[in-house]
């Protein structure tokens, strides 16, 4: 299961969550593990996920 690093804009901390690709593609951001805020952004730099987009 790929790990995604998120950055919390409220407490200014990074946290890592494990999401399935399906969950991630649903656009379902997790809540901050520190403060429970949903004001988080994905740090894609650390996520090594290769997706083959079919259009
Ligand atoms: Zn937070």
Q: What low-confidence regions span 5 or more consecutive residues with pLDDT below 50?
A: none
Bound molecule types: zinc ion
Give the terminus-to-terminus CA distance. Answer: 25 Å
- Helix content bin: under 10%
The level-1 CATH class: Mainly Beta
Structural overview:
This protein is mainly β and 55 residues long. 9% of the residues are buried. It is 9% helix and 27% strand. The protein contains 1 helix and 3 strands. The longest helix is centred in the middle third of the chain and has 5 residues, at 21-25. It has one domain (3-46): Rubrerythrin, domain 2 (Single Sheet). The radius of gyration is 12 Å and the shape is elongated. Bound molecules: zinc ion. Zinc ion (ZN) is lined by residues 8, 10-11, 13, 32, 34-35, 37. Residues 8, 10-11, 13, 32, 34-35, 37 line the site of zinc ion (ZN).
